[in-house]
Amino acid sequence: MEQPRRSPRDWIVDSVVFVFAIVLGLLIFDDSAKASEGMRVLDVCLGLALSLTLWFRRRWPVQLALLASAVSVFSEVASGPTLILILSVAVYRRLRTTLLVFAVNALSLAAYLQVKQQADGPAVAVAAIAIYIATAGWGLYIRSRRQLLQTLRDRADRAEMVARLQAEQGQLRAREEIAREMHDVLGHRLSLLSVHAGALAYRPDASTEEVADAAEVIRASAHQALQDLREVIGVLRAPVGELPQPSFADLPALVEASQAAGVPVELQQDVVGALPDHIGRTAYRIVQEGLTNAMKHAPGERVTIAMNGAPGNGLTVEVRNPAPDRRRGDGQGLLGLAERAALVEGRLEHGRTPDGEFRLSAWLPWPP
């Protein structure tokens, strides 16, 4: 696997480590020891050569640390780079590997004392072991700190990803809400247009005044549909809570608009108290979808709307109209209504009754 290139910070750190290892090794080196000139030169050369390997300590820390354990048996100058390599193993490798390298270097220390035959060997051994332990402990601390920081970064990345996914899901929900609004609003308006246009098509003998009245209604409905479309499209960048929403108080106007289009609508209300906004809005959409389906599938037939309810008992909404033998359409509006009712913990039912009517019924909770 290709190793990442050194950053400027890595070059600075490696340079400082290299110089530090050489200086530390030369300070430990005992030039007055009883050894031949050639052995002292070999000691220094081995230490400097081992120091050069520090430039590759990130790639091969274990291999170089084991090499250092062998070199340090014969070289005191190698003590400096050996400590750095022990530190590198503790930083870049697991605890088990660190303990193994520590044990090998402890054995090399014993071999070194046997080779040098120093009088103060036990004191040197205790001091060297203490330095090894401190170096390895420092390396393990650096490793644990880096792992902690990496864990925090990973958690931050995951939190950012979760937030992004939640935002995307929020956008999808907003688009679904807008799609429902477009279906409910425009579907009703276009159904009114269809009714008036159909009346003109089936009334070729209509007077000029009747044609003008129908054309005016078509023009007004088309203009209102265009306004509704612009209103919905205009809030695509707005929060979902700012979408234009009708209320239960707008229900009489909806019925009057359908009656003006020539649909015989009978509204029966027995509602006591003020409905919560979300319940009233859902009831409005149910009635609107019922009228739209009636105008689409049973044009000209009577539509009966019955609503009753009170706080604590819930609100019942029922829309009935004569049903044709075959119903067309994909039922997306009814699916949307079922979702709306489920969102407010209500229920929706629809289907043909034994007496040949299509019945759309819903029960919505109304807290006391």
Automatic annotation (TrEMBL):
Keyword Nucleotidyltransferase: no
Membrane-traversing stretches: 12-29, 64-92, 99-115, 121-142
Molecular-function GO term, any one: kinase activity
Catalytic reaction equation(s): ATP + protein L-histidine = ADP + protein N-phospho-L-histidine
Cleavable signal peptide: none
EC number: 2.7.13.3
Enzyme's top EC category: transferase
Domain of life: Bacteria
Alphabetized InterPro entries for the sequence: HATPase_C_sf (IPR036890), Sensor_HK_TwoCompSys (IPR050482), Sig_transdc_His_kin_sub3_dim/P (IPR011712)
UniProtKB keywords: ATP-binding, Kinase, Membrane, Nucleotide-binding, Phosphoprotein, Transferase, Transmembrane, Transmembrane helix, Two-component regulatory system
Every Signal transduction histidine kinase subgroup 3 dimerisation and phosphoacceptor domain range: 175-239
Record flagged with keyword Cell membrane: no
Record protein name field: histidine kinase
Organism from which the protein derives: Kribbella yunnanensis
